[in-house]
Amino acid sequence: MLTRVAAVVIAGSLWSPLAVRAADIEFREPRPLAKLVGNLVEVSGYLVTYEEAPYDEANELHTDSYANGTKFRSPTWATIKFQVPSRTGVAGIAASSPEPRNTAGPLQMIRGFVAQYNASGNPGRFKTISDGEYIHIVPAGRMLNKSLEAFQPILDTGIAMPPEPKLCLTVLEDLLGQVGRLRSTTIVEGMVPLNPLLHYQCNVVGENLTAREALIQILEKMGHATGNYDLNRWTWNLVYDANINGYFLNTWLVPRVAIASQPIGTVEPVEPASVPSLPKERPSMIAPDGSRVHDPAAK
């Protein structure tokens, strides 16, 4: 599981989940919006997810060359300072705190963060959608030659999964493999909770589901399967890697705080795409060049 706290600067000092108050959060590292989401999950227990689109090859990526001839493509990031509304609790509520969360509602707050990111000139453009429980930060399109082009978020893809229970890891791999085939890409596990994936049974039920809805079912059933009195909850990020022309799925374990005490905002359902016929072969978890992949963002 991914439980990494970003090194950020607030009003000139290093920020941690136990910080008391701040007006601005400054990120000086890759994927600042994803890092902010991770902090929201870890500190306040919000169910927030993050998904990327491919980057603009000509304008959002740079190439690093190494002495051994290896070349590595990665997005070009600029420092960004998010303005945090007062009394949000983003930097003021520790995971064990019983204090109430932002009374203005996390959906409005997160939309504000997304708008600030979109205006920063950093790679990608994003929007927020809500299913009434989770808040999803998803691509608003993809940049191509500095223009925003239409792009269906990867996890909007319509899927069809057999309802029979299987090992959770098998069900997750089947889901990612199916979506990868439908979208002509590769999706592999990055930082995921291997213990429940390898020891418990999962299944996906329902018709006309999106891949996002199926992923939520898998993660929630893993949380119930552990036998804990309290449900373990996970959120995720789905990050694009130009070096494999594919995606890494990473998960966050959500702290056990009072999550359902407030509505998060308007429900905005996502219409799944039609589901074409699928090949029967088992999805490969190997990069297109035949090598095993790793998550460069997990260094």
Number of domains: 1
Strand segment tally: 18
Overall spatial form: globular
What's the alpha carbon Rg, rounded to whole Å?
Answer: 19 Å
Biggest β-sheet: count, sense, barrel? 6 strands, mixed
Number of helices: 5
User: What spatial order of strands do you see in the largest sheet?
Assistant: 8-9-4-17-18-14
Category from helices, strands and their pairing? alpha+beta
- In N-to-C order, the SSE pattern is EEEHEEEEHEEEEEEHEHEEHEE
- Spans of 5+ residues with little confidence (pLDDT < 50)? 1-22, 91-104, 258-299
Terminal CA distance reads: 14 Å
The percentage of residues in β strands lies in: 15-25%
Helix content: 10-25%
Average pLDDT figure: 77
Could you give the topology of this structure?
Elements: E1 8-10, E2 13-14, E3 24-27, H1 32-44, E4 48-51, E5 61-65, E6 71-75, E7 80-83, H2 106-118, E8 126-130, E9 135-139, E10 142-144, E11 147-149, E12 158-159, E13 166-167, H3 168-183, E14 186-189, H4 194-199, E15 201-202, E16 209-210, H5 211-225, E17 233-241, E18 246-254
Parallel strand pairs: 4-9, 4-17, 14-18
Antiparallel strand pairs: 1-2, 1-3, 3-7, 5-6, 8-9, 10-11, 12-16, 13-15, 17-18
Helix pairs in contact: 3-5
Protein architecture, described:
With 299 residues, the chain is of the alpha+beta class. The protein has one domain (8-258, 265-290). The protein has five helices and 18 strands. Strands 8-9-4-17-18-14 form a six-stranded mixed β-sheet, sandwiched between helices. Strand 8 (126-130) and strand 9 form a beta hairpin. Helix 3 (168-183) packs antiparallel against helix 5 (211-225). The chain is globular and about 45 Å long. Mean pLDDT is 77; it is low at 1-22, 91-104 and 258-299.
